[in-house]
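User: Sorry, what's this?
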Amino acid sequence: MSRSRTSARKAGARFEREVADFLAAALGDPSIDRRVKTGARDRGDVANVRANGLRAVVECKDVARTDLAGWLGEAEAERANDGADVGVVIHKRRGVSDPGEQYVTMTLRTFAAMAIGGMR
């Protein structure tokens, strides 16, 4: 069964809310929340995320087809728009509802920066 445009939008918004709520609780930061859509200068789906001192842009995806390269490109553009340090993609793991068990995709450079708290 395919999604309608409306049901896809609702699923995406619900996934963004679940991710934001999980991150706020897990990181102990109530300022983490869904970001208001900003159109062409999109700055990611979740605001106020910090990872090891770095500002992170989070792009959320709840879609049927995987496009890691496209999603990472989108996260990088949003990172630049926001002036953040790193960008990551959190994408829905089919058949798994627990937000803490979803996938996170990033480049190795991003992972290294997050591990040491900055770029070298």
Notes: The longest strand covers residues 54-61. The mean pLDDT is 93. The CA atoms of residues 79 and 87 lie 5 Å apart. Residues 5-27 form the longest helix (23 residues).
